Amino acid sequence: MVSHEERAHALLSASGSERWINCPASPRLEESAPEESSVYAREGTLAHELAEIMLKVDLKKMTMAKYREELEVLKKHELYSDDLLDPIMDYVNYVKQQYAEAKRIDPAALILIENKFDLRNYVEMGFGTSDCTIAYDGHIEVIDLKFGAGKEVKATNNTQLMYYGLGALESLGAMAKRLHNVKLTIVQPRMSNIDTWETTLVDIRKWGEEVLKPKAVEAYRGDGPQVPGDWCQFCKVRPRCKALHDLAMENVRRDFEEQDDPRLINDDELLTLYQNADFITKFLNDVKSTVLKEALAGKKWEGYKLVEGKSIRQITDEAQALLILKGELYTTDEIANVKIKGLGDLEKLLKKAGFNSLLGHLVVKPAGAPTLVDENDKRELYGVSRIAQDFAKIEDDDLN
C-alpha cells in the first residue's frame, strides 16, 4: 500500500498546478512557509489509503489476509469511522465498472492503481502518483478520487487531472503511441459527483508543451508574477501575499468623485463589492487566523495581548450526571432533551425503501432562502419557482 501521508511532494505538484500555472511566483514563496495539515487533508489521505486496499482486494491484486492486515492498521487512525466505507465503495465500484467495460472491449486492458509517474519531460523535478489509470483499445481513463464534500470539483480543463493524464502517458511508454482518446474523471462520492471530460492525446500533449512546460520553467525559477485569484485558496502564504492584499484593498476602495452624493456608493460599486465579498472575507479571515497563530507561537504584536476568550460550562460525563439526577427521582423528561437523528442517519438505518414507506409522508423540503447566483445557473428563477410550488399546493388541495 502506498503511504499517502509520506508521499513526496514535488515543488511543482499536480495538486497545486492550477495555482502555480496562474501564479508562477507562488511555489518559491511557499517554500519558506511551514507545512500544515488540516483535518480534511488527513481524512482525505485516510480515504485514499482505504480506497487503494479495497480496490486491490476486489480486483485480486491483494490477498484477503493482506487486506485484513492493512485494514486493521487503518482502523487505528484517529479519523477512521465505518461511515467512510460506503462513499469509498462508490468510488471502488465506479473503477470496477469502468475496468470491466474496458476488459469487455479489450481483453488486454490494463489498470494501474496508485501509479507513480515521472513528468520531468514537462516539469522540472516533476513527478506524482495518480489514483487509477485504465488503458485499453486506444483509450485511457485517469480517475481521481476527491473525498471532500465542500465544493463540487469539475473535470473539464482540470489541470491536476491533465497533469495526471500526461504522467500516465509517460508511464505507459510505447503503449501510449497506440492511444488517441484521453478520458479524465473526477469521482467525488460524498457529493454524488462523477464528472468526466474527454480530450485527445494530441490536445493534452499540446497543453503540456504550450502551457504546462513554459509555466513550469517560470515557476521553478520563481521570478514569475504574483497573480491572485480563486487558486489562492490553499496557498500557504496567502495571508501575507502582497498581490492578494493589494487586490483586496482595491476592491474595497471606491471612487466617489462622479457621484450625485459622494457620501454614498452607486449600484455598480455595490454590486462590485457583492461580487468580491467572499474573496475579501476569506482573505481577511486568513489574516486574522495568521496573526493569532503567530501570537500563540510567541510573537508580540504591538498594541495587542493574548487573553483567554469566553467559554461555556460543560458537563464532563453526561451519563454519570443522568444517573445522579435519576437517583434523586428526577424524570427523563425533566433532565434530558431527546431529538430524532438527522434524515441522512435515518435513511442509512432504514434503507431507502424502508425510509420512504415509514417516514416519507412526514418529510417535507421547505423552500430555500433566496440567494443571488450567476444568471446562467440552471435553477429556476426564484419567483417562478415559488409560483410553481403554490400552484402544485392548490392542485393537491383540490384533489383532496
Quick rundown:
The chain is α+β, with helices and mostly antiparallel strands and 400 residues long.
Task: Describe what this molecule looks like in 3D.
This protein is α+β, with helices and mostly antiparallel strands. It has 3 domains: 4-221, Lambda Exonuclease, Chain A (Alpha-Beta Complex); 237-255 and 270-296; 322-399, no CATH class. The chain is built from 13 helices and 5 strands. It has helices at residues 17-22, 26-30, 39-58, 64-74, 85-105, 159-172, 201-221, 242-252, 267-296, 318-327, 332-335, 343-359, 382-399; strands at 110-118, 127-136, 139-145, 181-188, 193-200. It has a 5-stranded mixed β-sheet. β2 (127-136) and β3 form a beta hairpin. The longest helix is centred in the C-terminal third of the chain and has 30 residues, at 267-296. It is globular, with a radius of gyration of 27 Å. The N and C termini lie far apart (60 Å). The mean pLDDT is 87.
